[in-house]
Design a protein that fits this description.
Number of strands of chain A: 0
Strand order of the largest sheet of chain C: 6-7-8-3-9-10
CATH architecture of the largest domain in chain C: 3-Layer(aba) Sandwich
Number of strands of chain C: 20
Number of helices of chain A: 8
Distance between the termini of chain A: 19 Å
Structural class of chain C: alpha/beta
Chains: A mainly alpha (about 190), B mainly alpha (about 240), C alpha/beta (about 500)
Number of helices of chain C: 16
Strand content of chain C: 15-25%
Structural class of chain A: mainly alpha
Radius of gyration of chain C: 24 Å
Strand content of chain A: under 5%
Largest interface: B-C, 56 and 64 residues
Oligomer: heterotrimer
Distance between the termini of chain C: 30 Å
Number of domains of chain C: 2
């Protein structure tokens, strides 16, 4: 198995990351409608999973998905997302790398699982809602209102929502991966393109 | 996705080094995101709220600047003075709405400014100056080049769909998505191949160093701004 | 000096990255190209000329995998001992498709790209770009967004990029396929200046007319072998008939005879009224108060780049909703929405208009008549496919087909939708003589079935073969309109000649 990056790999990474990012971005724009926002981690990966599967079918060695993760993190960061996005993007990408490697970069099943694990980076976008500013906000309230009141308030914005989102990412990513696998079989395999 | 359309000859009044922009992003991001609503941190938040306004003014987006500044100040003042004086559900509602806008808004606007005011070559040049390896910088420049292509592809596929009179009524969203995504994915892999071949004949190599004709450099203003950002972060973390 | 000795190359059926390679290989090639020679490679699609180009610029074996025997040497060194980076310093390449050969968004960055990769001093690169732009008279193309440029301007940028590094060998793979006559003239000018500088130039091309006075030697290829060779003294003797025998596009456009007899049968006409439209960027606009087109005829829409040809046909098609114009067709007055219902356009890049997983489905997708059952639809679709000679590939994925088959699949879905007006956007770009004739025959067949056909084209030979009427668009207005016959053929040639490179005005 080759491990060195060739130009072809780098261009594949660039172009498919762009496609994946744009699809996610468009779905996220729909997510500005407040009700959908909570379900972004579910809906986003369903659509983005389709091009992601084509990308995974072209990934042939370790490192490509990590680069994708880093690039998404940089893009999210320069468009104003808070710094935890780096941890989540790179973490999700690394997990995905290992999943794909376990499938020797050719197993469709591992690609579908990879699509689920890769989607976890989306949590980096919402993490601040649950751990960053919530804590800060409540900490600032303690002085004025007392611990009891703050505890009551905290129950309005439960931490379990965060874990629900993890689940949504995984489910959405799996559905997207399966859809992508179907598209690959229906079109790309038939057209002789993979 | 306006990134690609900006050429190196800028129109902005104040030309900042991309590194300065980065410093602003980090500072505004940290302070707005995790700053408390009381004491010195609240004052820092107020200062940070001004930053997007000034940045937008510098790229001559006056209308956007004024509107966004009004919204941001309204929410920040709301947080500072209305929230402490309300209770219960009303308090929670205001907190969530104002929280989302004031904590994410400035970051997004600064991000938008960075995208608007930085050309692709400036961006890549600065990344290499900051010692990013070219397994990161090459894919990123390919990406910026691909965004406009993607737009062209999408527009012509949409035209074709109109002509075929398909996809007007979205009965099955997945069929609709398939009709759009599949041709795009097909041409994406084609473009990836062609572009790889063309780049190879132009001597692009994965592990090799390149030079850049794009000149970037720090000016006096850049140093002052970076110092100011650093000072704000110090105050934020120490006090 | 470039030397091919006993070179045989065949592509792996499936490439390393899993993609099929359709280009044809070469067999037992022995070619020697002297320094400073201008060599033209020609021949039908799949003759192997692109493979020769790839062997010279190092893409074979660095990028395309396959089996290779024999040796190719550049200046005495075997290409197998050279990395593609070494080769790229000596050989500059211009590709067919300007859309996918650029790495950058900004034109100046693109011109500097190859030089940057060789780590040249940035100030030096900038100076060279400036002087190149001045000498090529393309200062206006500096620091622009590549996506705003026309196909011709993009090729200019590609050539400028080569000038910045100024390699000794330059290879071009069908550089003119997406260009109009004016742009081809400019390209010929650049080729001439390279030739004067003593560069070795190897060009693979179908359209030969602009190379007549430039070529030192021409090789005709077929099935991966060289089948004929012509020296500089023999090339002027290649008459239209001789080219046709060899299966080549002609060297001299005015020799092309107009051989059709007038088969006039005007049954009605299509009237366009108040076609005024401006794009949001205010760059391209059309204003056509009135235009009449005979129904059931083939109309060529000609004009220079940016004259508004595409804008006109897009509006005819109804793709621009804001257009207030009315089309009168068979007693109906059609607004944009109604026109979409009656018109069908085959785009230059047909890949964008094929959506389903088999050719048959593709045709059936266009049948919107709800009274038909699936079986009836399939039967009807099959009839159309038989008519177009696509029945054998009915179950295949459209993307697995050749370019010509894809185009016919798109035509088939147009026929299935029972639209009466069919529009083609440059259907012959990049086609060899044989395939161009096939397309021309296809147009005539469409006419026989009563369709009205519009063709946006720059291809003089193709127009002579099948078009009945000419509409020349100039600055968004109708510059001229006439029926094409023995008398008016000169007028058409005049227009093409004004913009014609190479032959007439030397």
């Amino acid at each position: 198995m080759k491990t060195k990056f060739e130009i072809k790999d780098l261009i594949t990474v660039g172009i498919f990351t762009a496609l994946y990012f744009v699809v996610t971005f468009i779905v996220a724009c729909i997510g500005f409608i407040p009700i959908f926002m909570a379900f972004m981690p579910l809906i986003g990966p369903i659509f983005a999973g389709i091009p992601l599967m084509l990308y995974f079918s072209k990934v042939k060695h370790f490192g490509m998905v990590t680069v994708t993760g880093i690039i998404i993190a940089i893009l999210m960061f320069i468009t104003g997302h808070p710094y935890p996005i780096f941890i989540f993007c790179i973490g999700a990408a690394l997990i995905t790398e290992f999943v794909l490697r376990a499938g020797k970069y050719s197993s469709i099943k591992h690609c579908v699982i990879g699509s689920a694990t890769f989607s976890l980076w989306l949590l980096g976008m919402v993490i601040a809602f649950f751990f960053g500013f919530r804590e800060a906000y409540f900490a600032s309230l303690v002085d004025g209102y007392g611990q009891e009141y703050v505890d009551k308030m905290q129950s309005y914005t439960p931490t379990w929502m965060f874990f629900a989102m993890i689940l949504m990412c995984l489910v959405g990513g799996t559905i997207g991966g399966l859809l992508g696998a179907r598209v690959l079989k229906k079109h790309f395999k038939k057209a002789g393109m993979i | 996705m306006e990134t690609g359309s900006r050429t190196a000859a800028g129109k902005e009044m104040l030309k900042l080094d991309p590194r300065t922009k980065l410093a602003i992003l980090i500072t505004v991001g940290i302070i707005m995101m995790s700053g408390k609503l009381t004491g010195i941190e609240y004052i820092l938040r107020l200062i940070c709220t001004c930053v997007p306004f000034l940045l937008l003014i510098s790229v001559k987006l006056y209308k956007t600047a004024v509107i966004s500044a009004l919204i941001l100040f309204a929410t920040v003042l709301c947080e500072g003075f209305v929230i402490p004086n309300t209770k219960g559900i009303l308090n929670l509602m205001i907190m969530i709405i104002c929280g989302v806008i004031s904590r994410f808004g400035p970051g997004y606007i600064c991000g938008w400014y960075v995208v608007r005011s930085t050309s692709v070559s400036e961006f890549v040049t600065v990344m290499e100056r900051m010692h990013f390896p070219n397994i990161i910088t090459i894919p990123m420049s390919v990406m910026f080049r691909y965004f406009p292509t993607l737009k062209e592809e999408y527009l012509s596929i949409r035209d074709a769909m109109k002509m075929r009179e398909i996809g007007q009524s979205i009965k099955n969203p997945f069929t609709y998505i398939e009709y759009i995504l599949v041709p795009i994915m097909m041409s994406t892999s084609q473009i990836a191949n062609d572009l790889s071949a063309a780049s190879l004949t132009k001597g692009l190599g994965a592990g090799r160093k390149r030079t850049h004709i794009c000149s970037i450099g720090m000016t006096c203003i850049d140093y002052i701004l970076i110092a100011a950002m650093a000072a704000m972060l110090v105050i934020f973390f120490v006090f | 000096m470039i030397e091919f000795s006993n070179v045989t190359f065949s592509y792996e059926a499936v490439r390393r990255d899993g993609e099929n390679e359709e280009a044809a290989g070469v067999k037992d090639l022995n070619i020697t190209v002297k320094d400073g020679e201008f060599l033209v490679l020609t021949g039908g699609s799949g003759c192997g000329k692109t493979t020769v180009i790839r062997l010279i610029n190092g893409l074979i074996p660095a990028y395309y995998n396959g089996e290779m025997t024999g040796t190719v040497t550049l200046g005495g060194r075997n290409i197998r001992d050279m990395s593609i980076y070494d080769i790229s310093g000596q050989v500059g390449s211009v590709f067919q498709n300007p859309r996918s050969q650029f790495f950058n968004v900004n034109t100046t960055d693109e011109m500097a790209f190859a030089a940057e990769n060789r780590c040249l001093d940035p100030d030096e690169i900038k100076r060279t770009i400036k002087s190149t732009a001045v000498s090529m008279r393309i200062e206006d193309l500096l620091d622009r967004n590549i996506f705003e440029l026309s196909g011709g301007e993009k090729q200019m940028v590609a050539c400028a990029g080569i000038n910045v590094l100024s390699p000794e060998i330059i290879v071009l793979d069908e550089p003119s396929s997406n260009l109009d006559h004016q742009a081809i003239k400019k390209l010929a000018g650049i080729l001439r200046s390279w030739k004067e500088q003593g560069k070795t130039i190897i060009i693979a091309e179908h359209r030969l007319f602009y190379l007549k006075d430039l070529a030192d030697r021409m090789l005709v290829m077929e099935g991966g072998r060289v089948t004929a060779e012509f020296g500089a003294d023999k090339i002027p003797e290649l008459s239209y008939e001789r080219c046709e025998e060899l299966g080549l596009r002609p060297f001299v456009l005015k020799e092309i005879p107009f051989m059709r007899k007038d088969e006039k049968k005007v049954c009605g006409s299509i009237e366009l009224k108040d076609f005024n439209f401006t794009y949001k960027d205010k760059m391209h606009s059309i204003s056509i108060p009135e235009l009449e087109i005979p129904e059931g005829s083939i109309t060529a829409v000609i004009g220079n780049n940016g004259a508004g040809k595409s804008t006109l046909v897009r509006n005819i098609c109804g793709l621009e909703k804001r257009c207030k114009g009315i089309m009168r067709f068979r007693g109906k007055s059609l607004k944009p929405k109604g026109r979409l219902h009656n018109c069908y356009m085959i785009m230059q890049d047909v890949n964008h208009q094929l959506f389903t997983e088999s050719v048959l489905d593709e045709v059936m997708l266009s049948m919107t008549d709800k009274s038909l059952g699936e079986d009836e639809k399939a039967k009807k679709a099959m009839d159309i496919l038989i008519e177009l000679g696509l029945d054998a590939v009915a179950e295949m994925h459209p993307m697995a087909l050749s370019g010509g088959q894809k185009q016919r699949t798109a035509i088939a879905s147009g026929l299935a939708s029972e639209k009466e007006i069919i529009i083609f956007d440059e259907p012959t770009s990049g086609l060899d003589l044989h395939h161009m004739k096939l397309v021309a025959d296809q147009m005539k067949r469409l006419k026989e079935t009563g369709k009205t056909v519009f063709i946006v084209t720059h291809d003089y030979e193709f127009i002579l073969r099948c078009c009945d009427r000419i509409i020349r668009v100039d600055k968004g207005m109708i510059g001229d309109e006439y029926d094409l016959n023995e008398k008016t053929v000169g007028k058409l040639l005049d227009f093409m000649n004004i913009n014609d490179g190479g032959n007439e005005n030397v």
